[in-house]
Structures are given as C-alpha cells and as structure tokens.
Amino acid sequence: MRPFFPRVRGGSRDAAAVLDDLVEYHRSNPGVTEATLGALTTRDGRTGYDLLAERVAAGAQAVLDLGCGNGPLLERLLTLPLARVVGVDLCAAELALARARCGDDPRLELLEASGHAFDVRDLDAVVSHHAFYLMEPIEAVIANVARALRPGGTFAWITSSPRAAEHPVFAALMTRFAAITRREHPTFGGWGDRRVWSEEGLRSLFSPELFTPFSIDDFVLVAREPSEALADRLLRFFYSAELQSDEGRAETRRAWLEVLDGRDRVELPWAMVTMRRR
Ligand SMILES: C[S@@+](CC[C@H](N)C(=O)[O-])C[C@H]1O[C@@H](n2cnc3c(N)ncnc32)[C@H](O)[C@@H]1O
Asked: Which of 14, 44, 90, 147 is the most exposed place for a label (fewest CB within 10 A)?
C-alpha cells in the first residue's frame, strides 16, 4: 500500500480533506514539482518557470507566486528589478526550501497561507506554476487574487493544455493512466475544481467585471531522455500515480512504455492562461 493521500483513497471528496492530503504529500516530498518538471524545457530551452517570469511586465514592482513550492520561480523573479516578491504556499517544508535557496534577499516575503486567505495588496502580478488549479474553494481564491492585484495587474498560471488531445502520444499516456486510476478509485473526482480544466469552465469562474478575457497560450516542454526515465518522471509528477496501488502503478508504467515505444524525445503540451485585473 502506498502511503500518500489517505483521505482521497478513503473516498473523500471533501475539498479540505483533499487539500490536507496534498499538503501532506508535499511535506514528505518537498521540491517534487521542480525535480520532475524543472528539467524539461521548451524547444528553445526555457522552463515553465522562465515563461512565467517573462510574463511579468517591465516596470512591475510587486509580484506574488501562488503555490510557490520550493521557490524555483521566486528565484527567477528575484533576478528581475522588482521591489517586492511574495511566495505563498500552505506547505512549510516547501517554504523552508524556498527560503534556503533564495537566501535573505530583503525583497522576499514567504507566507504560509492558503490561496484564498493570504492578505497582500497592490500587486502588479500574481503568477502560479502548476498550483492555482489545485486550489479550492476556487471562487474564494479568485476573489482573493482580484483583491490583491492593482488595476491592470496580470494574473498568469501554467496548467494542462485544453488542446492536449491534439498531441497523440501525450493524449494516449493520459488516457491509459486515467483508466487505471478510475478503475481503482471510481468515486475520485479529480484534483481541484472541475471548472479550471476547460475554457468554458474558466469563463464561468472569471467575472468580466473583475478581469479582462483570458488568453490561453499553448507550449510544449520537450523530454529528451529514454522512455523509462520519462515514465518514472511522470509517475512522480502526477499526484494520481500516488493514488494507484503498487499493481496499478506498475500497470501504468507498462502502458506508458508501450505508448512511448522506445522514443527518447517526447513533447508534452501545457498552457499558460493570462488575464488582467480591470
Ligand atoms: C504541484 S506543486 C507546485 C509547486 C511550485 N509552484 C512548482 O511548480 O515547483 C503545488 C503547490 O501548491 C501548494 N498548494 C496547494 N494548494 C494550495 C492552496 N490552497 N494554497 C496555497 N498553496 C497550495 C502545494 O503545497 C504545493 O507546494
């Protein structure tokens, strides 16, 4: 029996219980997202963290990284001429690593807080790398982001691509994976609020009075490694792989190796959603 996500395994769809499991997982595996995705880059060599740091407009003074984890994006933000960089995360173990890597730069504040409860104002940008979409209750998080941003401020986050189905290898990996998770956990509804996973859902969540229409920019991160290494990387990245039994996980790995068919270069589709505060 794998040790993580006990409440989700127990069938809970209570958002607070799912969040507890998530934070507990990060307490035991701090830095896991950077360890799995941080080594993958776009065709021209940029990570997702680089892409988000580039989204921060010239002239910005104050930026917050929502669900900052162990701080790879904070580290990049601190290379920009910003006056204030704030990292928010619920997991103290992740924040401790962020502090260790960023040192005592006086521009940096780290807050152990949830996305709907941090109390920061007058931000030029809120950015989030594979974190915003996990947060619940999502409406309260969005309301808090709207409160935190000054008019014209940017909200940008990296997520799955709504057009992932157009990438046949990735789509096949996800289909095989989801079938095994669904078989083992038929009542599990997935991570985060369902509405964050579709354009239509996002439109229903973001009020046009508070935010400009969003853009969704697709990009790919290229895995340049043997298929066994990529399968192991993705097993570490996707929380659902921790939900699977040892047998289910082994089955996922076998299915993925079949799909990857010995490839040593695979393009993984992601997307950046960007909007502005009115
Ligand atoms: C997939 S990790 C991404 C970490 C980091 N952004 C990165 O990409 O390396 C998600 C992070 O979001 C944090 N998190 C999840 N839900 C949260 C919430 N409601 N409020 C604040 N942080 C949250 C987790 O503790 C974890 O560090």
From this structure: 44
Asked whether residue 261 is assigned to any structural domain, the reply reads no
As a three-state string, the secondary structure of 79-132 is CCCCCEEEEEECCHHHHHHHHHHHCCCCCEEEEECCCCCCCCCCEEEEEEECCH
Predicted confidence band at 10 (pLDDT cuts at 50, 70, 90)? confident
pLDDT value of residue 249: 97
Cα(179) to centroid(ligand 1), Å: 26
- Nearest of 36, 31, 2, 21 to residue 93 by alpha carbon: 31
CATH for 204:
3.40.50.150
Query: What pLDDT sits at residue 3?
Result: 79
Q: For residue 13, is pLDDT > 80?
A: no
Rounded to the nearest angstrom, the distance between the alpha carbon of 131 and the centre of ligand 1 is 5
With respect to residue 136, please indicate whether it lies within any of the assigned structural domains.
yes
Model pLDDT, residue 64:
98
Cα 109 to Cα 120: distance, rounded to the nearest angstrom: 11
The predicted structure's pLDDT at residue 164: 93
Structure confidence by residue, pLDDT tens digits, 16-70: 888 999 999 999 999 999 999 999 999 999 999 999 999 998 999 999 999 999 9
Q: Does residue 205 form part of some domain?
A: yes
Whether 196 is in the pocket of ligand 1, judged by its Cβ within 6 Å, is no
For atom 10 of ligand 1, which residue has the closest CA? 131
Residue from 23, 37, 95, 102 whose mutation best tests the ligand 1 pocket (most atoms within 8 A of CB): 23
- Residue 9: the pLDDT is 83
Calculate how far, in angstroms, residue 116's C-alpha sits from the geometric centre of ligand 1. 13
- Specify the number of domains making up the chain: 1
Interval between CA 157 and ligand 1 midpoint (Å): 12
